[in-house]
Write a structure and sequence with these properties.
610 residues; 24 helices; 13 strands
Length: 610
């Protein structure tokens, strides 16, 4: 559009030929949806983009043109700097932050070197240039620090998974597998960090001796007096925690009792006011219920226990259309209007005062007898009447804080020593409890698990064992299995996922229940591997398996074409794993059928592409 042309006629012909070669398998309709003409026009001018949101044929064409020197400027994410030899004369960094999957974080020196290391073409350029664009708040010293770093720490993210555990035990037995893990690089790093902690522990021991001496009282043993004070304080704090826990349990029960159509008051926070329950949202014990509500201001949001200091009760009920979609602005507007009308018909809200309810809770519980006895013992202690009591107490408090820190150091040292092997033991305990392992023997269920390499491998194995997917048609199976691979960027803010009618909602509920049971078991064994299944891609997978066009599903998915293709390829991979692990169950044939249904259009090309 700006009239910038960086290529000659011969180069444009070569670019067009490369683009035609890489996109030959895509239909005209798909190319139109992907904006092929606009993309090709820019490519012929020598300007291109390269990022994960692009479909593989477009990215591969850009890479081929870049390697041959046909493209002069590429606007790219770090995907262009990884794994392929694509040097440039100059590299320009727009900013020094990147999305790491959870948040936008500063790039590391290693990432900076990886990106700017593309500057300077071997045998062509004498030097390369790395340019960082200035913006308000940019510290030049930060750039200098990134550019001057020459050594980059290598950190292991290894940890034994359920699939790895059954494969290790099946191959080498539990004892030998444990020894192998203790020889891993991850364990080496953990053990090496203990040296500094041990030195810190020695310094803490010296400081404790000094604090104890400073707290000495002529009247009696002040440390004994301090222990009485601390014990009394701990009991009173525990009493406060119990009150809070009881209150949380009451709130949880009240949220569990909510039903679609209940009109409630949200007492505080950003979404305070009258709201109607759209979906109760009962999930695992860790988070508690998270109801999806619509406020009078047309905001559809999931609430949590933190939004309700007191139990909530329905003020009334109203009709929520079965076809209501939180994604539809018109549907939200209509329901919010009906809610405002309903609100005027209800009696005024009487939300309790948090301060008043807190005092009532204290009066109800009363004073703990042990705390009262300790108070009397404190008053009778010789140190209680010491004129320097509070000075001694300050030193004793310092001693107590440092002593707790010292105990924490000891625990950290103990936890880092043999930590990988201990984690492996806990994973094996979970598998023993569920029957996937029997000591050093891998059970038939364990052999099924050994074929599943998904992030939610144990959830998939349990669903196969329990027959959760047995009655699903191929396209329904594809929808449900998408939860094993897809993960929304902002899951907490995502609306309720749209699901196909029929058997899928019941299977989704069964999968969520299976995950919740495994989540509870993981917490009992102190491991955390299994994230919550995410069904927000289920409708897209279902429609694609039904033969929907790329244009239709991208509108439903609200993702880029590249993200859609990547998720579909991951889904195909997990479907093939499930088919391999399903044995003689009907899931095997349906999984293979689902795989065939998904392989059309841009996915059929991408499944064959390297």
């Amino acid at each position: 559009d700006a009239g910038v042309r960086l290529t000659g006629p011969g180069e444009r012909d070569r670019i067009r030929a490369i683009a035609d070669e890489h996109t030959a398998a895509l239909s005209a309709a798909d190319l139109n949806v992907l904006g092929y003409d606009r993309w090709l026009a820019a490519l012929e001018e020598g300007i291109a983009a390269h990022h994960a949101g692009m479909v593989p044929p477009f990215k591969e064409a850009v890479e081929a043109c870049f390697v041959q020197g046909l493209v002069k400027v590429v606007f790219a994410t770090e995907t262009l700097a990884l794994g392929i030899n694509m040097p440039a004369r100059s590299v320009v960094l727009e900013q020094l932050t990147k999305w790491n999957g959870d948040s936008h974080a500063d790039i590391t020196p290693g990432e900076y070197t990886q990106l700017t290391g593309r500057a300077g073409r071997r045998g062509i350029d004498v030097e390369g240039h790395g340019v960082v664009l200035w913006r308000p708040g940019l510290d030049p010293r930060q750039v200098a620090g990134l550019a001057s770093t020459r050594t980059y720490p290598l950190r292991s993210s290894f940890r034994p998974s359920y699939n790895m555990a059954v494969n290790l035990v099946g191959t080498d037995g539990r004892a030998r597998s444990r020894r192998l893990l203790e020889s891993s690089f991850a364990q080496f790093q953990a053990d090496r960090g203990v040296v500094g902690l041990a030195a810190e522990l020695r310094r803490s021991a010296d400081a404790l001796a000094g604090y104890a001496e400073a707290a000495t009282c002529e009247r009696d043993d002040f440390m004994e007096y301090a222990r009485l004070r601390r014990r009394c304080s701990d009991i009173e704090a525990g009493q406060a925690r119990r009150r809070k826990s009881d209150s949380r349990a009451a709130v949880t029960d009240s949220l569990h009792a909510l039903r679609p159509g209940d009109v409630i008051d949200v007492p505080a926070g950003r979404w305070a006011g009258t709201a109607v329950v759209i979906d109760p949202g009962v999930y695992g014990e860790r988070e508690g219920p998270r109801p999806l509500v619509l406020t009078v201001d047309r905001h559809a949001r999931r609430l949590s226990l933190g939004d309700f200091p007191e139990p909530v009760a329905a003020r009334g009920r109203m009709r929520v259309p079965k076809t209501f979609s939180a994604r539809s602005p018109q549907a939200r507007r209509d329901l919010a209007s009906a809610l405002r009308t309903k609100e005027q018909q209800l009696p005024p809200s009487t939300l309790p005062s948090a301060r008043r309810s807190g005092r009532a809770a204290v009066e109800e519980v009363g004073v703990d007898p042990e705390a009262q006895a300790l108070r009397e013992a404190l008053r009778a202690h010789p140190c209680h009447g010491c004129p320097e009591r509070e000075d001694h107490a300050r030193w004793a408090e310092r001693y107590d804080r440092l002593d707790r820190d010292t105990q924490g150091l000891r625990r950290r040292i103990e936890s880092r020593t043999h930590s990988i092997a201990r984690q492996f033991d806990r994973v094996c305990e979970v598998l023993d409890t569920l029957g996937y392992l029997d000591g050093d023997e891998v059970t038939p269920d364990g052999r099924r698990l050994s074929r599943l390499y998904s992030e939610l491998d144990l959830v998939a194995a349990e669903c196969l064992r329990l027959g959760v997917w047995d009655e699903l048609a191929p396209e329904e199976l594809a929808a449900c299995l998408s939860a094993l691979v897809h993960e929304s960027r902002n899951a907490d803010q995502a609306p309720e996922p749209r699901l196909p009618r029929g058997r899928v909602p019941d299977v989704v509920a069964a999968m969520q229940h299976t995950w919740a049971e495994l989540d509870r078991m993981e917490r009992e064994h102190r491991v955390t591997y299994l994230r919550r299944p995410d069904f927000s891609f289920a409708w897209v997978a279902f429609r694609w398996a039904r033969g929907a066009s790329l244009d239709e599903v991208l509108g439903d998915a609200q993702v880029t074409a590249g993200d859609f293709v990547r998720t579909m390829r991951q889904l195909l991979d997990v479907i093939d794993q499930v088919a391999d692990a399903a044995g003689d169950s009907p899931v095997r044939a349906n999984a293979r059928a689902a795989s065939r249904l998904l392989r059309h259009g841009v996915i059929d090309y991408s499944a064959l592409a390297p």
